[in-house]
Amino acid sequence: MLIGYVRVSKSDGTQTLEPQRDAMLAAGVDPARIYEDLASGRYDERPGLAACLKAIQPGNTLVVWKLDRLGRDLRHLVNTVEDLRTRGVGLKVLAGAGAQIDTTTANGRLAFGIFAALAEFERELIRERTIAGLSSARARGRNGGRPYTMTPAKLRLAQAAMATA
């Protein structure tokens, strides 16, 4: 039996699960057996993934759209796949780097290790670029973040009101 897991990193509506769901359906996954999360892959605690891993049985195959949907942290990916292997559960990756990984073979496990390391490397590159971009913006006088609601004028007005009370 095929069990699907889909995830997007942002829950603000800028990303959608539909392309992943479509790929799951095309691969033969029953729509009732697709678990989903709206959370970053770097977090180990994802309710949809936990429910998926709890529901999966020996002989089943976990289907993910891309390897980075399962997680971007190498430790978590390796531990999850090893747990699946010891439980007699396969892993199938539909697209992207690592497509057609079959963890029931030695070659598949080697390919998984390589692609998991690449997924973690990609996450670190994104993090480094983000930090560099933020530093560059700060150097140009842009601090970003939420604007202050308490302006100096409002603060003086509040202090004056408190002094007269």
Description:
- The structure is a single chain.
- The longest helix has 34 residues, at 106-139.
- It contains six helices and four strands, in the order βαβαβααβαα.
- Helices cover 50% and strands 12% of the residues.
- By secondary structure, the chain is an alpha/beta fold.
- The model has no long low-confidence stretch (mean pLDDT 83).
- A four-stranded parallel β-sheet has the order 2-1-3-4, with helices on both faces.
Can you give me a brief rundown of this structure?
The chain has 165 residues and is of the alpha/beta class. Helices cover 50% and strands 12% of the residues.
Characteristics:
alpha/beta; four-stranded parallel sheet; 6 helices; 50% helix; elongated
Unreliable stretches (pLDDT < 50, length at least 5) are none
Rounded mean pLDDT score = 83
Query: Judging from the principal axes of the Cα atoms, what is the shape?
Result: elongated
Query: Rg to the nearest angstrom?
Result: 22 Å
How much helix is in the residues?
40-55%
Total helical elements: 6
Number of E strands: 4
Strand content: 5-15%
For the sheet with most strands, the description reads: 4 strands, parallel
Strand order of the largest sheet: 2-1-3-4
Structural class, from secondary structure content? alpha/beta
**Terminal Cα span:** 72 Å
Secondary-structure element pattern, one letter each: EHEHEHHEHH
